[in-house]
Amino acid sequence: MEYSICTIAPIVLLPFFAFVINAFIVKRFTNIAVAISCFSIFGSFLFAARIFNDFVFGVYSAGFHVHKVFTWFDISATGLPFKVDMGFYIDNMSATMLLMVTGVATLIHVFSTFYMHDDKRYGRFFVYLSLFTSAMLGLVLSDNLLSVFIFWELMGFCSYSLIGFYYEKEGAGDASIKAFMTTRVGDVFFLFGIVILWSVIGSVSFVEIYKAISAMKLQGLTVLGFPLATVAAASVFMGTVGKSAQVPLQVWLPDAMWGPTPCSALIHAATMVAAGVYLSLRMYPLMEAGHMMTVISYIGAITAFGAATIALIQTDIKAVLAFSTISQLGYMVMGIGVGAYNASFMHLITHAVFKACLFLAAGSVIHSLHDHHTHSHVQEMPRMGGLRKKLPFTFIAMMCCTLAIAGIPFFSGFVSKDRILGDALYMAMKHSSYIPVAVLGFGAALLTAFYMFRMMFLTFFGEPRDKELHDHCHHEHLSWNQNIPLLILTVFTLGGWYCGSIMGQPFGKIATERYEWFQTLIEKPDVAKFKDYYKDNLIGGKTRPSISTEKSVYDENGGLSEEQAHHVHHAHHLGAIFSVIIAFFGVFLAFLAYIRKAIDPGKIVNAFSGWSRALQNKYYFDHFYKKILIHKILLRLNNFLAWLDLGIYDRYVIDGTEKVNSYMFQFAKWFDNLWIDSILVDGTGASVRLFNVVLRTVQSGSIQFYFIVILAVLTGYIIAI
Amino acid sequence: MHNLLNYILWFPVLGMLGIVFIPGKQENTIRYWALLNTLITFGLTLVLYCKFDSTVGDMQSLFTINKPWIPSFHIFYALGVDGISLPMILLTALLFFLCILSSWTVGKSVKSYFALLLMLESTVFGVFMSLDFFLFYVYWEVMLLPMFFLIGIWGGENREYAAVKFFLYTFFGSILMLLGIIALYMVSGQTEESFNILALSGGKWSKEVLNIFGFSLPFAKIFFLAMFVGFAIKVPVFPFHTWLPHAHVQAPTAVSVILAGVLLKMGTYGFLRIAFPIFPEASIYFSSAIAWLGLINVIYGALCAMAQTDVKKLVAYSSVSHMGFVMLGLAAMTVQGMNGAVLQMFNHGTSTAMMFLLIGILYERSHHRWIVKPDGTKGFGGLYTQLPRYSIVFIIAMFASMGLPGLSGFISEALIFLGIYQKFTTITALALFGLLIGAAYLLWMFKRMFFGPVLDEVKKYNDMNAREIFYMVPLCVCVVVFGIFPSPLLNMMKASVGKLVSMLAGIHV
Fold first, then answer.
1. Can you give the pTM of this predicted structure?
2. How far apart are CA A25 and CA B386, in angstroms?
3. Do A395 and A344 reside in the same domain of the chain?
């Protein structure tokens, strides 16, 4: 079976057209615009589902790619070829990703019709949402780094607009700039990486990059004195660091919570931030070739642990979720670093589902709590409590997701996180340099279980701490756009959907001949396979993929030798046991502290006041960037240069000394009085006069002076010759 | 068809003469006359575009005009158009049409204002069409006159100073250029081809030696430098840039638009048409210096822009920064870099024109341009709430100018980076920070003016009216369409640019 362009393109074009149409009609026909947005994304969900279905259930099997190319522009000159091709590239990973993005986005669109309904910019929110989804889908379908970059930046723009959605508030403006600028730091590096790869390989399509890596084209070259592959890999990875909020560019994500909650769910939790991880997964062979794995795993582990510690003391429900997002993204990046390719991608998917659900549930909670004194919604957990009975559906959804993120068995988070931790443990057993990574990883798992249950206990359990607020909260009813999307997402927080197994052993056949479909389908890109890949499978011509198209056989050992596989399995069993114990221990601690009140968290905070201050200030990253880098260095440099430019350089060097300066002013004044004001301005009544003026100006002193200079130069020159 | 360039060149002059015979009291007649004139001129350039054969890299033989003008000095009235000048001609015609519309509210001696604008249009066309060096110089110089008056009469408080500064600066550069012209005329033996730009091209002067006061100096390098300064002042390249902030801040809106949108491109056009083809080995010799200057432009301009509290000055410095990218692309002398540079010339023309027009629209309402007033209070606040339509257009202009993918600036900048990387790695790495600072000052400016609560003063402002929307729409379309489909522009220029690049690549230093 062959895909035509018409079955792929609608995935990205439907939301894009919705954006274009809505941008024009949104003011007059808000409800129609919203409907267009929702239906268009549902339409792309159907197309994506079809592709996913084909890939998973046999029509296209593992290792098969759909790759279509068209020329965007061509500026070749004689002997100097240069053209830019764009294309679609679909393999199992992008098919899965497409399904996740469209599915989650559809549900979030539906939820937004509830959450944003009373907002005065209800329609405009959907305009941005449509543009965002189409950009995200474009990124997933991209076949090359340039178009990844294009959609990447477009998402940055949408994120900027949505964080600044409530632009009347001062903080929203600051947060949106912070988000855009911080990610742009990463983007600039990413662009540099693209430029490097393009110059060496002559193209930046994934296929060509894989081919070049398998042909060892990048070896032996240097950029600015460093090995080229390392510079390229590090630059591309910096893109991930920015977009996926890794240390040291994590500062923007907590502030991104200024945006409306559904957009936080879609952009700052489920999809856009995951795009960074997706990029690193796509460029996995480059990361390996650039020897970046250790660095990546450390950055991921530090992020995962550091963000989890900050989440411990947050009181804003969205802030807890924001830091947990950073922490979970850290897990994914760490997974890439320790070689857990498949697990890392699986965590991306499972996290997208449960985190979207968590944010929507938080939105549902926030929306229900309306403070009638300040006319605002309440996000502070100290004012919540006991909401379990008032919001039963939200509670069920949030509980399941919390179980998932905490890594409790039978839920999706356990399946994926456990596999990352298992690989980290394996690496730690093999190389001592990975021991800190594993320790931080398991530590973060403990903290995650604790702070997530802390959030649950503070929100839904115990006595209501703000009686008035609690009484005003209406009892929740089942409604199609408030809690149904949550419950649908909740269903997919169950582990069985992703693994077909709970503890690592296959328990059943999900699809024919396949155990653990996820592990079977998603493979590390094998660069050797791309060696003989045809370059010119242009649209119109026949697509000629020369990669092996046989169904890949599920190898239980994942291509490892018997002995290695034994070690891996051993590490995984150990890891699973560890992480279960740790997760339950974290939940137990939270139970002691917030239900039983056996431990007083306040005392602990007081006992470690230095640490808690560091946590309150998010380890002083913001302080360093804002106070020192921007205010002390950048702005001072700017002001100094601007003063130097016009105040010193222009005034003294260009205009000359005071004397010359005053001559010039006199000249100007004379010219002005004589010619401009007196004749041109005051005397333009008669038609002929203008010409008179022009003529007389030409004959005037200034122009004569000018010709004299020219003549003098000429004479001097001729004499010289 | 044969005389199409003549029509385009002289039609604005005809319009100017027409204005002379309209009584000055009938201001609206003058406005509509000028509008009609520029519209027809724009139509003529579109005809030129339709008849243009984009496969040919040379001058289009269909349009070339070559008639003796001053035979005794071998000066010809020679006009021609190729893929490098055509985008500039289209841009000029479009911007002048929109500028006439934006000048509707100018009330001070309407008659001379529009007459001078039309005269300016003709001279700009002359620069982009001339194939005779002397003719080029004449247009280059005559262009100063209307500019001088337009800034000096209709400008802001400090207009005389700015006008004289602009005049003297450019004039200084012109002298150096004239030196080069005369030198070439002498060296090439005062023949029929001594002022012919095309005939002079191709690196014929690499062997020439200049004996001056007993020293032997390489002719090509000396006169490349002379021309370089002449063109660099126009671009403007650091350290010749300080006239720009003065001129922009003082000039009326339409003149700022023309200045940033078209006149700055005359400088880079000079490199492409004259300095590089005539002195190829010297340009290769100095290319790394040009690249470093371009880098300084990019970073220095952006850093200076960030400190500005006058929004027009900020955009003026951003032009310095963006023209630095063009210089980088030129210095690369690769297919990607050169195409990127010419594309950037066009794209910067549209996006910066949008910025200046928008600032003009705001100025008509507020009568000041302070982001932060000199006394430290906010100049604007909450414009987003008060002027929603205006804000959306502003967002498009701003993101186009910072090079957001999907809008026009991105492709040209990406091409320039691809081009320059092959030659100068360090410069590429450093220039990328220009993108970062470029986003920073624009977003910061936007936040301070548009976000936050609505100031009392701002509550009086009205949103854009129909006329203002009408002249912003074509530029919005340009910025968006060429951001998504750059090929119409690239196809136009690629043959000519490719020819130049091949020629430069064939020169061995």
1. 0.91
2. 20
3. yes
